[in-house]
């Protein structure tokens, strides 16, 4: 050939990794077509070039998505095929758009129109950075462009036509060569006789996987594959469920060696009739599932206005083939409802009746995606859903021999079934004879629709087993004394102690469910020596049925000055400093640790935890062990524990975010979930210390200390993290930049879940502590923990990590509406509005009553430029939450749109 050929590689999923050849090394990302540059001659060419880039990206995603799909579960394969077909059909829309634009450009009077087309051809033929296999993405465009240029008889058009013809010939030649190679892969392994410059397929796929990942593509289209469930028992052909299916036809219940041929997405002006002619040679019946807009439209009165596609369908009907309904616009009907869903089904039914009054009662959901409302609509319209059990993947695979091999291997495996083809591809036309030849030779029969249902397998899905709840912490009631002193009259003033006390008190009440009446808060003038001791004594004296009980817990927090006094024996004694203490009279005015210890032993509670945001030393400590039966054994042991901010001669660092000391900020982050080191939803005092101590020491001059007070029996104070229920939205607060910066430093020192941690005791020595073994939790609770962790990460603006956690939650619990919404909002926050909308739609599908998800969906559609869908979402929000906080905002958005 005179012109450099378009070197193209097959897209053969079944043979992925097996093709051989040479690899074009040192590739760079493909630049856009030259027509897209500022020097391009026309505005139209610029738009075409941009759409071509999107076509290539979608083509590459389809390859990555469907690569090695045999290793997925059946559910995973279904989702891959569904999303892959959606990618394909979206790309078909782009290709049709480019076809129209090219036809308009070629037919225009722009004197530089052929120069613009030439620039686009330059990119397809020899664009720098394009892999040879990439060029196959533009094959259909080349064929359509050839037909458009042929209409112009000018000399430049004739030259351009010759150039395109050579490229199309090259495509056909290379396709033939690759068909030979595929046949060698599947059987004969003969040597290639034609040498062509092309990369090794597995190397090309490996390159694509550096650009895209299957999980990422699926997630962008609203899909997270759940973790594998237990293997399903093999299907028994003679089981009752295999003999009858009331609602849908799949093909598994057909007699052995019986095949139903079906073709979707037509009618096509050329390929539908070519397929019918091939079928006629084999006397094979078939069902053609038509997209309504390919048949015509409905006028304002609901009357059919047929187009040229309807004539193709009439010819199919006259030839004896069955016409069936494939929706009006090929939308994903599982996401539609109400009038739009009804129109997708019934408008096409009206058009089919205009073509053939005896149209069949068969319907196929695009992508196989359906919902209960859609199934009910089919029943009301006396239509029956037809699925498939053998997918040719002709929508993704451009090589006929590869399509044929895939279908025949699937038929060998299934033994019977409904095959899904598409009558809009030339490759299907080419693959069909090889498939029919083999099936006829092996004794298969082709079944047609006779007006009655097929006998297929089916059955309802088993309801999920109930999820066991995690073991509770076992506390009857919770009590707290919270003290904060920063306005000392005789000691240096502190900045944040009162704020620290208030923050801890709020966390106890709002997060951990402490009754407000059981939380005593003393601030500044209230926190005298007498006031603090009185609070303890009142707690000790809280007898009776409404007072402190043996199965209760007590949490004590003090933020203020601490001091250490060396006794005549040489031993250190630590003190906490009340508001009214005189530095000259420390022994009489302050509260020594010995007195705190006595109070701790006198409290008739199961577990007591003292957290002192003060620095001092002087208390002996003991430690107890933990084993796997933690909660059971912990309930039997008394626990008296203490965590302090630092030791002798250390100053409390007041420079933390949001008006907190570094120690208390870290404490609050730990209680927020970061200290749940083993991920079981429980935070023990030991875990809290293992998180707080090294983290604080890494960012300040403090060395926090931790241990059990004398008299403790090794019990461990336990916080049970509540399940977060916040649906992320535009009003969700995020941390300040300085808080995020500090948390990043703190998390860098976080210990591994099972790693031992060395911390100080209150006498300055070292001890090793370790989180107890995790309490077993259900997958539902694991999903909740992942969602809650994602919320923390979102508030720290760690979007990639938050996305990973919300994804994990959905893998563990596929119907988790909260996680679906939150994943969508992470996309929204990153300006990925189409992806966000898909996940908000998923959240609504899982929980239709969740008003905030409709608000989020409206915002996503508005930002994506789809005003009508945005208004519909906002209106639904107003219906569900007529007095909600977002009413004014939603109404304002509707007015703007």
Task: Describe the overall structure.
The chain is α/β, with parallel strands linked by helices and 897 residues long. It has 29 helices and 24 strands. Strands 2, 3, 6, 9, 10 and 11 form a 6-stranded parallel sheet that branches. It has a 6-stranded mixed sheet with strand order 13-12-14-18-19-21, sandwiched between helices. The chain has a 3-stranded parallel sheet with strand order 1-8-7, with helices on one face. α12 (372-380) links the parallel β7 (362-363) and β8 (384-386). α20 packs across α21 (685-699). The two termini are 56 Å apart. Residues 1-30, 35-40, 180-198, 230-245, 456-472 and 620-628 have low confidence and may be disordered.
